[in-house]
Amino acid sequence: MGFGDLIVTCLSKHSRNRKAGLLIGQGKTLEETKKEVGMVIESIDNIDVAYELGKIHNVYMPIVETVYKVIYKNLEPNEAVKNLMTRERKSE
User: What residues have CB less than 8 Å from 42, skipping those under 6 apart?
Assistant: First the structure.
């Protein structure tokens, strides 16, 4: 994946990952999001794997952990942003 792919994934109205993020941000459930997108959403599968690998290898990844909680544990997106922006600073 190149930088151009990343930009298209983030900005294109045709991106499955972007559409999924917007739907989840609007309060849709994971099931509703998958149904509406109707195709594989790589970011959903990848966040699960990244979260599990972080736990296995004891790597602190606050963004991954927070996104995982939004998708799989029903953490409200607004609360997730607040948690990330107000967390205690530390060297990363």
Answer: 16, 17
Is 29 part of any domain? Answer: yes
pTM of the model: 0.80
Residue pointed to by tokens 């989840």: 24
Asked whether residue 92 is assigned to any structural domain, the reply reads no
Place of tokens 């736990």: 55
Contact (Cβ atoms closer than 8 angstroms) between residue 68 and residue 85: no
The reply to whether 91 falls in a domain is no
DSSP 27: T
What value does the mean pLDDT of the chain take? 89
Q: How far apart are CA 31 and CA 85, in angstroms?
A: 28
Range of the domain at 72: 3-86
